[in-house]
């Protein structure tokens, strides 16, 4: 149940960000749910591989290269999903930063309900 709520909250965050950012767009809420699932899978499977392959650059930049890896994950989701788009790597970078921030806020509401 918690996984489904997290996916729905991530989809809500995607819809909100696509509404606010002119460089990102999503067609429907169902597409946003698919984006949330695909981003979760890409973060689980592809991101660790990219982190290991780019470890020297990540160490050299004191971890800031991880922001670029997050933007690349967003662009991969853009290529995999019809109905979701990000115009450039700069929009993907801003989208990934704001998505992480918005997800942490939304997930805190979910964790607040479990404490009661």
TrEMBL record:
KW Transmembrane (keyword) present: yes
Keyword Transmembrane helix among UniProt keywords: yes
Transmembrane segments: 28-46, 53-77, 89-110
InterPro entries tied to this protein: Phage_holin_4_2
Leader sequence segment: none
Protein name: Putative membrane protein
Pfam families (alphabetical): Phage_holin_4_2
This protein's UniProt keywords: Membrane, Transmembrane, Transmembrane helix
């Amino acid at each position: 149940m918690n996984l489904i709520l997290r996916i729905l909250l991530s989809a809500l965050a995607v819809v909100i960000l696509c509404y606010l950012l002119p460089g990102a767009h999503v067609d429907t809420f169902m597409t946003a749910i698919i984006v949330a699932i695909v981003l979760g899978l890409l973060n689980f499977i592809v991101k660790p591989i990219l982190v290991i392959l780019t470890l020297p650059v990540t160490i050299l930049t004191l971890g800031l290269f991880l922001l670029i890896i997050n933007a690349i994950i967003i662009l991969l989701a853009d290529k995999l999903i019809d109905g979701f788009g990000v115009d450039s790597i700069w929009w993907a970078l801003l989208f990934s930063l704001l998505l992480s921030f918005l997800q942490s806020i939304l997930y805190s509401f979910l964790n607040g309900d479990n404490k009661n």
